[in-house]
Amino acid sequence: MYQLIASDLDGTLLNNEHMVDAYTAETLQTLEKKGIQFVIATGRHYLDVMGIRDVLGVRAHLITSNGARIHSPENKLIHEENIEPNVVQALAQTEFSAGTLLNFYLDDAWLIDQHSQYLLDMHQDSGFTYQISDLARHHGQGVAKVLYIGDHAHLLTVEHKLRERFGNTLYITFSMPDCLEVMAASVSKGHALQVVLERLKMSASQCIAFGDGQNDLELLQTAGHPRLMSNANPRLVAALPDVLKIGSNEESGVAKHLRTLFQIAH
Fold first, then answer.
1. What percentage of residues in the chain have a pLDDT greater than 90?
2. Checking CA distances to 33, which of 147, 149, 154, 245 falls within 20 to 30 Å?
3. Domain that includes residue 163, residue range
């Protein structure tokens, strides 16, 4: 029945230290030997997720920057979509960025406007790191995602300003309470999952998907068998009231659920 497993990372497959635990890695490796295929679907940068995939020890399609990039298990670029340069330049101005850590994701770089030890710690499993840059003066070309990091209450005001200014011309979502992310309007993890399903000649009914954040909404709506983490964002839970909840990320909820489904000893 299940031939494809699609999972978010932070708050879902990774623990609260944003790292892979051995139990989860062993579970996925066991399933791969049974012929199950994988998709990692995350807001993180492609170069970052390559390192996490290596730690997991499995082949997997990579949906990154919330679907703005899709790579094959062989690291071939399958799909890409950027924000228009003039829009990127507008997003970088203090009208929106004041009081936040501003980030740009490009193909080969992660740019940030100031130092953050929190972000360095969050990416320790992959070793991927940022470059500090004057983003307000950036040309805006080749940007897959703009990310604002800050206090959730403040980011809610930024979200409101963005929606007032840009309406539906951008995809605006939270990946975590302190991470507000902006992509081109047609980008989403759900659209990207559909691209992968078509590439693999699979149907949604063969896919089980796991998520916890608002940016997982379309992913879970696309998969035939969606699962919510018990630690899922309340706005996501409210949007998907009938979706089955499993254990939390901190208790390896995805791995435990998969072991039960595939009758692997816990």
1. 91
2. 245
3. 85-184
152 and 126 part of one domain: yes
Render pLDDT for 60-89 as a digit per residue (tens, 0 to 9): 999 999 999 999 999 999 999 999 999 999
3-state secondary structure 18-65: CCCCHHHHHHHHHHHHCCCEEEEECCCCHHHHHHHHHHHCCCCEEEEH
Rounded Cα distance between 43 and 210, Å, is: 14
pLDDT at residue 1, rounded to an integer: 81
Tokens 């609260």 label which residue? 16
- Domain at 223, CATH number: 3.40.50.1000
Instruction: Please give the C-alpha separations between residue 113 and each of 84, 92, 133, in angstroms, as whole numbers.
Output: 20, 10, 5
Nearest to 59 by CA among 17, 18, 28: 28
Q: Which of 8, 48, 113, 125 is flagged as catalytic?
A: 8
Quote the CA–CA distance of 72 and 39 in Å, as a whole number.
Answer: 9
d(CA 90, CA 120): 27
Final residue in a domain of this structure, among 141, 162, 184: 184
Looking at residue 251, its amino acid is E
Q: What is the pLDDT of residues 7-59, one digit of tens each?
A: 999 999 999 998 999 999 999 999 999 999 999 999 999 999 999 999 999 99
89 shares its domain with 52: no
Q: Which two tokens stand for residue 2?
A: 């299940």
- Helix (H, G, I), strand (E, B), or coil: what is residue 215? helix
Distance (Å, whole) CA 139 – CA 85 = 7
b/e burial code for range 195-206 (CB count within 10 A of at least 16 → b):
bbbeeeeeebeb
Q: Is 230 helix (H, G, I), strand (E, B) or coil?
A: coil
